[in-house]
Amino acid sequence: MPTVEWNRKAWGKTHSWDQQGDEWSFMASHCGQPYGKWKASLVETLLVPGASRGPSLEIGPGHGRWTEHLLEHSPGVWIVDVNENCLDHCRERFADRPGLRVHHTADCGMDPVPDASIAFVWSFDVFVHLDPDVVTGYLAEMSRVMAPGAGAVIHHAGKPDWTLRLSPLTRRTGRPGRIAQRWISQRRWRDDGNRSDVSPEAFARWAEANGLEVVEQRGSWGDRGQHTVAKYRDSITVLRKPA
Ligand SMILES: C[S@@+](CC[C@H](N)C(=O)[O-])C[C@H]1O[C@@H](n2cnc3c(N)ncnc32)[C@H](O)[C@@H]1O
Q: Where does the Methyltransferase domain lie (predicted)?
């Protein structure tokens, strides 16, 4: 399970950030699309419409792969990360852009972000690595900071709900059990992408329990649905805070 500690080490110490996040082109190659087109289409379809609505908040900006686009379309952007060095990189990269606010969180707290101040929350390639307690903590905080009518786009793990119910059994059988579980829940024998044990159904239940409406859950976009987050069976949930 990717704990907060694991996330601090993986992205704060181990990862080399060769291309400020653009090194993660495997989602595009998995669906047979050029990375530039895949990224531009994701920005155009799911980021720009939200960011244009008002002040935005990004959870887990890393080195600013999506922050750049949020800053272009939003009047102000909060970024929240567990790694101070990622935030430092963004501070430096976007030093000449007014409107960037930064918060270093211990896990999922966003205390400095005022209540009902945010029109759009964005997080990509972050929740896929967050354990359920951190996901639910963030959903509670999102509900607090989102203004009535605000939207959110969150990319998270999409293991089918029923497969997660098997994991107490498969865990008991050691390595063979882990391999079987990976196959059952992600159709992969190895390399689970460090995905957390989260299903689209659970994410929707937790969001609704925190007062957020689920607008849609999807794994693809583009005029032919050609762009996907299917490599590890991920899901993207679009949320709305009721007006
Ligand atoms: C795989 S990187 C993705 C970065 C960026 N979103 C992108 O797509 O290029 C994961 C990012 O999430 C951050 N992160 C991990 N756990 C977090 C948490 N609990 N709260 C906020 N940020 C977190 C990491 O420090 C890192 O910046």
A: 57-149
